[in-house]
TrEMBL record:
It comes from Cystobacter ferrugineus. One of its GO terms (molecular function) is oxidoreductase activity. PROSITE patterns: ADH_SHORT. Keywords: Oxidoreductase. The keyword RNA-binding does not apply. Residues 7-183 form the Ketoreductase domain. This is Short-chain dehydrogenase/reductase. SUPFAM superfamilies: NAD(P)-binding Rossmann-fold domains. It holds the Pfam family adh_short. Gene3D superfamilies: NAD(P)-binding Rossmann-like Domain.
Length: 280
């Protein structure tokens, strides 16, 4: 790669899963990566990946007041940021009635407001430079839904919508925005990272327990390969005209297509009612 093709990435959540795979691939391609971690041990492990171009930043994305100064320091010490990847996030599982408001707020704090705070921190410099790419890792759960993950899907639908609006707002400044929506990938998402609401209402057992069991059994066996997702990310950021939405994985493709088809059929089935509400 020529030095002019080399980019500086800021990736949140590089301790495992997608974040680690994205960082590894970007480093291998010759880019510089600043990655956020939440502990000293993970900081050292990350920086050991590449002694000069891997830099760890200890930051919890819900520490909103710390984000602006942390990003400003990165820009001063490492240089202008070309790509922000809002990857940090987790899944919360539990029927809505069993989910505390506090747990749902926490899900949105990490998956939505953490990403928004990061975006707000990088935008002024990107806008000034008339360049940059913001990649928000959403999920196929930002399009499709299933019982037991209302907090997660709600947060990912929100991030999809925010990304789409932002893409329209900053396009004129030369800043690109992509919502990257993976299907099921082999990461720590359904394992150590998932928060599971304590079960207390037996009425939901028949619907929810098989879903919970299937997710537990599938953890570690998912079809999606994070290293291949990382190759897709590098292709995305190198593209002249990157898409605003990009799905990753055959499961995402199938399920999202089915969802869009079903949505279109439902809109048509109720079209007369929809049309009936305007003033004469
Ligand atoms: P993962 O292996 O569990 O990685 C999650 C990363 O996010 C970890 O580095 C974790 O750091 C970090 N993180 C969590 N909360 C954080 C916070 N408050 N502040 C800073 N960092 C935080 O799972 P993953 O699958 O790679 O998840 C990455 C993203 O992909 C998430 O947004 C997830 O929703 C999305 N996603 C995953 C899948 C899938 O099937 N795997 C599918 C669609 C979307 P710690 O190590 O400190 O906890």
């Amino acid at each position: 790669m020529s030095p002019s093709d080399s980019k500086t990435f800021l990736i949140t959540g590089v301790s495992s899963g997608f974040g680690r795979a994205f960082a590894r691939a970007a480093l291998e391609a010759g880019h510089t990566v600043v990655g956020t971690v939440r502990g000293e041990e993970t900081r050292a492990a990350f920086e050991a990946l590449e002694p000069r171009r891997a830099r760890a930043l200890v930051l919890d994305v819900t520490d909103f007041d710390a984000i602006g100064p942390a990003v400003a320091r990165v820009e001063r010490e490492v240089g202008a940021l070309d790509v922000l990847v809002n990857n940090a996030g987790y899944g919360h599982e539990g029927p809505l009635e069993e989910t505390s408001l506090e747990d749902m707020r926490r899900q949105f704090d990490v998956n939505v407001f953490g990403a928004v705070a990061m975006i707000k921190a990088v935008l002024p410099a990107m806008r000034q430079r008339r360049a940059g790419h913001i990649v928000n890792v959403t999920s196929m759960g930002g399009f499709i839904t299933m019982p037991g993950i209302s907090s997660y899907c709600g947060s990912k639908f929100a991030l999809e919508g925010i990304s789409e609006v932002l893409a329209k707002e900053v396009k004129g400044f030369g800043i690109r925005v992509t919502a990257l929506a993976p299907g099921s990938f082999r990461t720590d998402w359904a394992g150590r990272s998932m928060i599971r609401a304590p079960r207390r209402i037996p009425d939901y057992d028949a619907l929810f327990e098989p879903i919970r069991k299937a997710r537990e059994e599938k953890s570690g066996q998912q079809a999606g390969d994070p290293a291949k997702a990382a190759r897709a990310l590098l292709k995305l950021v190198a593209a002249e005209n990157p898409p605003v939405h990009l799905l990753l994985g055959r499961d995402a493709l199938k399920l999202v297509r089915e969802k869009l088809q079903a949505l279109s059929e439902e809109i048509s089935a109720w079209e007369d009612v929809t049309r009936s509400t305007d003033f004469d």
